[in-house]
Design brief:
heterodimer, A: mainly beta, 6-stranded mixed β-sheet, 5-stranded antiparallel β-sheet, globular, B: 0% helix, 57% strand
């Protein structure tokens, strides 16, 4: 079965600094990969998704992620952090032919002024 | 446009009491519907999914159940709550076949069992 591992439950960056949130996946077939953001006491909102087209995926709010098959990774980046980026971020994986979307444990991003 | 509603937003219930959480989707037909639970400091755990009226698949055996009485209505229930049922419950929907399509999440219900 597919799974994802998010390295680092908490990441803290300064405003204006690079944001890097790590996600590694495990899948027996080509995966579909997603990044979601969750603000406190709210549902999840899709940031971006990879569905086997371009390996560099651009999302909302200036985020992007690169699919690297050789590294089984799908790390999320943003060149310059903003205070409003403080939230919890979830990586997720699904496979064609299944109804499951498996989520990682999440990474809480803190942005310092 | 499509919207998803969940209620109540928050709920405090005693151990052993029943539970009913409701989720409705507007603006789409025949959606796939999902119930997730998010425990503190953990990721999302898929509890149930449904691909049509009356069709429910359970991912995790527990004292919860789900029903889909109408195309765009998904209900999560329990006859007797346990302390371990506390958490943030999220309903989601998608269209198309299988799970590789984007899932759209509701605002969630925070359940505290005392």
């Amino acid at each position: 079965a597919q799974s994802v591992t998010q390295l680092g439950s908490h990441v803290s960056v300064s405003e204006g600094a690079l944001v890097l949130l790590r996600c590694n996946y495990s899948s027996s077939v080509p995966p579909y990969l997603f990044w979601y953001v969750q603000y406190p006491n709210q549902g999840l909102q899709l940031l971006l998704k990879y569905t086997s087209a371009a390996t560099l995926v651009k999302g909302i709010n200036g985020f992007e992620a690169e699919f690297k098959k050789s590294e089984t990774s799908f790390h999320l980046t943003k060149p310059s952090a903003h205070m409003s980026d403080a939230a919890e971020y979830f990586c997720a994986v699904s496979e064609l032919g299944t109804w499951d979307m498996r989520f990682g444990a999440g990474t809480r991003l803190t942005v310092k002024p | 446009s499509q919207t998803i509603h969940q209620w109540p937003a928050t709920l405090v219930q005693p151990v052993g009491s029943p539970l009913s959480l409701e989720c409705t989707v507007e603006g789409t037909s025949n959606p796939n519907l999902y119930w997730y639970r998010q425990a503190a400091g953990r990721g999302l755990q898929l509890l149930f999914y449904s691909v049509g009226i009356g069709q429910i698949s359970s991912e995790v055996p527990q004292n919860l159940s789900a029903s889909r009485p109408q195309d765009r209505q998904f209900i999560l229930s329990s006859k007797k709550l346990l302390l371990s049922d506390s958490g943030f419950y999220l309903c989601a929907w998608s269209v198309g076949t299988y799970a590789y399509n984007e899932q759209f999440f509701g605002p969630g219900t925070r359940l505290t069992v005392l």
